[in-house]
Amino acid sequence: MSNEGKERTHMKKTAHSRVCRVIRDYQAQYLDPISVQGGETLIVSEKVDYWNDNPEWAWVWCTDRRGKSGWVPGGAIDFDADGTTGKARYDYAAKELSVVIGNEPVVEREEGGWLWCTHPEGKSGWVPIDHVVES
Q1: How far is CA 11 from CA 19, 57, 93, in A?
Q2: d(CA 35, CA 43)
Q3: Which end of the chain has fewer surrounding CB within 10 Å, N or C?
Q4: Which of 125, 110, 129, 7 lies closest to 56 in space, CA to CA?
């Protein structure tokens, strides 16, 4: 992935936290998600997925030093020249948040077609961007 592509997929902190309304239920898919620390070395596979077919939302299947694998946003990785390893650019946790229609989570940041949300009960995690609208 080029540096330009890496920059475009880098996590965006929203200008301010905002409340959104869930318009489609979402059930967390990965109950034991990958979590990486900035600077951590990752084994990078050739498996890449473009969320909702958007080339700016690239996700790469990676394995951490503990042997846990999962999807990591392409913008979160500084790829080594060999293309099979890289370093995490920042801390990232792939924790998803289950939500139902009508929930009103607070959105704090956006990454690769997903929003980091906090539910009023205090639980936080990623929700697909197309499952919520601005309140």
Answers
A1: 19, 10, 12
A2: 14
A3: C
A4: 7
Every domain of the chain and the residues it spans: 3-134
Query: What pLDDT, on the 0 to 100 scale, is given for residue 10?
Result: 43
DSSP letters, the chain, are --HHHHHHTS-EEEEEEEEEEE-S-B--S-SS--EE-TT-EEEEEEEEEEGGG-TTSEEEEEE-TTS-EEEEEGGGEEE-TTSSEEEESS-EE--B--B-TT--PEEEEEETTEEEEE-TTS-EEEEEGGGEEE-
Nearest to 131 by CA among 91, 109, 101, 86: 101
State the pLDDT at residue 17: 84
Residue 86 pLDDT: 96
How many alpha carbons lie under 13 Å from residue 67 in its C-beta half-sphere? Answer: 0
Say what the pTM is. Answer: 0.82
Question: Which amino acid appears at position 69 of this protein?
Answer: S
